[in-house]
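Hi C.,

You asked whether I'd gotten around to modeling the 125-residue construct. I have! Everything is below, sequence then structure, no commentary in between.
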Amino acid sequence: MPHVFVTGGLGYIASHTTLVLLDHGHSVVMLDNLSNSFERVYDHMKMIAGDKADGMKFVKGDMRDAALMDRLFAEEHFDAVIHFAGSKAVGESVERPLEYYANNFCGAVALLEAMRKHKCTNVRV
């Protein structure tokens, strides 16, 4: 069974993607810092997934946390990554450009570095 890491996992698109992955027999670890989502989404996902809910796990954290990323990749041995954790509000990005740079660029670099270190070469953005 392919093991997939989903960043921004409790967001709208990522949560729906996770449910489809479960339906297709994948196991999923979702990472989310809850900056634009809510932990209660995970509870709803478990109800929707039913008996497949055991195939998913939620980790509260930030992909910019190199130690967390290293630990997750070392423990979980992911087959693939789907990256949804980018910030995307245009108005807010103009008001807070450094925060967007830190999350979108630095976060992606941290993710890719963890992937390279742990030889996970399958990524979808």
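If it helps when you're writing up: The longest helix spans residues 97-117.

Thanks,
B.
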